[in-house]
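input
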Amino acid sequence: MQITDEMPDTWVRQLVTAIETYDHTVVDAHESAIVIDLTTHAMRVLDADPGEQLVIGWTDRYGVDWGLGRVDHVPNPEPMDAATPAEIAARVHLLLTTGSPS
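output
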């Protein structure tokens, strides 16, 4: 499933700020996706392969979603079930610390 270009610039900036409040490193942020590097702990709890990153984006099917992969390809996006930048950032933090968005 492809991530679509639907995130407004102000929304992207608000989400990046909210994610960085939790001390996570955003390495790329634009209208298509927000990409977060994984720490060793996050790789372990998410069962990520070396080189994978956490990608937050939009899909036609899910709305706000997340997946492991690279900014140009996330093979299995999953719904984030959150609507505001603060809610999404809180779920990202849970993903990176527990492996579950809720």
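quick obs: The radius of gyration is 12 Å.
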